[in-house]
Write a structure and sequence with these properties.
Mean pLDDT: 80
Helix content: over 70%
Strand content: under 5%
Order of helices and strands: HHHH
Number of strands: 0
Shape: flat
Low-confidence stretches: none
Number of domains: 2
Structural class: mainly alpha
Largest sheet: none
Radius of gyration: 18 Å
Distance between the termini: 43 Å
């Protein structure tokens, strides 16, 4: 199954948009100095989660033919493919919440 030009263009636009956000963040660090506190570990971890999303998406969605026939359904393979994005958003929200209310209060609210 070949992807249409519109689908490929959309995927490229998403990756280019994400890379543009990373470049803006890097320029901000160059101009204003290194990050402090909660923002410091969030940058490299969000990059690692996005790389994991690209890898899992390529494996589970791009290589459907290597899976047995009963597992070749898109909704079933989309779960592990999109799980890194869900975990990244959840992790960033937890970090933001723990930063606002303190680490002990955030742990109790979970």
């Amino acid at each position: 199954m070949l992807l249409s030009v519109h689908v490929i263009a959309g995927l490229v636009a998403i990756v280019v948009g994400y890379v543009a956000l990373l470049v803006i963040g890097d320029l901000r660090v160059v101009v204003h100095g290194p990050l402090q506190g909660q923002q410091r570990p969030a940058r490299p971890l969000s990059r690692m989660y996005f790389a994991m999303f690209i890898a899992t998406g390529s494996f589970f969605l791009g290589q459907m033919k290597v899976f047995p026939e009963p597992l070749r359904h898109f909704p079933l393979l989309a779960i592990p493919a999109f799980l890194p994005l869900v975990l990244m958003v959840d992790w960033l929200r937890f970090r933001e919440r723990s930063h606002r209310v303190g680490p002990l209060a955030a742990a109790r609210s979970v």
